[in-house]
Amino acid sequence: MITQFNILNKSINGLTGFSSPGFNTEWIKIFAQKNDLELVESIAPLSDDNAIFEFQSNKLFLHMLLDGESSSIHFDLDEGSVGYRAKSVSKNNELIARAIGCKSHYRPRVLDATAGMGRDSFVMAKLGCDVLMQERCEPIYLLLENALNRLYESQPELKKYLQLQKSNSIESFDTLEMIDVIYLDPMFPGRKKSALVKKEMRLFKLLAGEDCDADSLLTHALTANVKRVVVKRPKGAPQLKALKPSHEIISKNFRFDVYLN
Ligand SMILES: C[S@@+](CC[C@H](N)C(=O)[O-])C[C@H]1O[C@@H](n2cnc3c(N)ncnc32)[C@H](O)[C@@H]1O
After folding, report:
1. Closest alpha carbon to 110 in 85, 129, 89
2. Which residue, judged by its Cα, is nearest atom 10 of ligand 1?
3. What angle do CA 5, 200, 70 make, to 5 degrees?
């Protein structure tokens, strides 16, 4: 289990054209202080209980040991497969649009209570929904915040649709205002070392753990003042808390359990 997070006291490539705070050592020191990270001079001290952040230009990486080897993770929303998918997002080709209740002239306001890598939130924002994202795991929050900052640079119009908070969402359900839908996609305990599980997902799991309180996330969400709660589950996985949903939307690999209030 990783208990110590450090940050490399230098940025590879130094300053770029990125207009947010410069990624020079002064800025890294401020970032380290704000987020309670210890500054280190190299990634050599990597160990099973120690991970190291590094800025490569404006992109934040987290280096960790996986099977004894150094590996790294970073999040991207406007690049790679996520960015590609986002280009063709529409109400008709995204099941998530049906699950959260998008209509021709209606887009719900969504609380994504398990933000993670921000991919589902990004799709919902591209659909035109206002999305408040909450993430409780500190390193995941930092990686996501960095991906969002880069996204806002390339697609500034998304800033008004996507906001991120560092918090345990269970604590916010009682006081929600102006939210129509709570969206939940907790970690699913899966095969630990299968070759089928991508390295990125194994690294992500090292950080997030197994979300053992997912049942209670659903029961609390169902008491909130919202129109619906949507839970994303791997296909064939049991319902959270064994609670039968109002209806299900099933795709090739996963399923949305929709609870109408
Ligand atoms: C499977 S990931 C979500 C992936 C996300 N839907 C995406 O598209 O990238 C689950 C995430 O929810 C977070 N999480 C679980 N329970 C939470 C809670 N009560 N409050 C905030 N975040 C939570 C975990 O830390 C993890 O990052």
Report:
1. 129
2. 186
3. 55
How far is ligand 1, taken at its centre, from the CA of residue 186, in Å? Answer: 5
Give the residue among 84, 49, 50, 55 at the shortest CA–CA distance from 150.
55
pLDDT tens across 119-160, in order? 999 999 999 999 999 999 999 999 999 999 999 999 999 999
pLDDT tens per residue across span 80-123: 778 777 788 888 889 999 999 999 999 999 999 999 999 999 99
Give yes or no for a contact between 52 and 123, defined as CB atoms under 8 angstroms apart: no
pTM: 0.94
Instruction: Let me know: does 160 contact 174? Beta carbons within 8 Å.
Output: no
CA atoms lying within 13 Å on the CB side of residue 224 = 30
Q: Which atom of ligand 1 is nearest to the CA of 112?
A: 6
Ligand 1 atom 2: residue of nearest CA: 116
Joined together, the tokens standing for residue 179 give: 């939210």
Residue indicated by tokens 């590996």: 71
Measure the CA–CA gap between 192 and 54, rounded to whole angstroms: 26
234: helix, strand or coil: strand
Structural domains of the chain in order of their starting residue, each with its CATH number: 4-73 (no CATH), 80-260 (3.40.50.150)
Of all atoms in ligand 1, which is nearest to the CA of residue 168?
20
Ligand 1 geometric centre to CA of 205 (Å)? 10
- H helices within the chain, ranges in order? 25-34, 80-87, 95-100, 119-126, 138-154, 199-208, 214-221
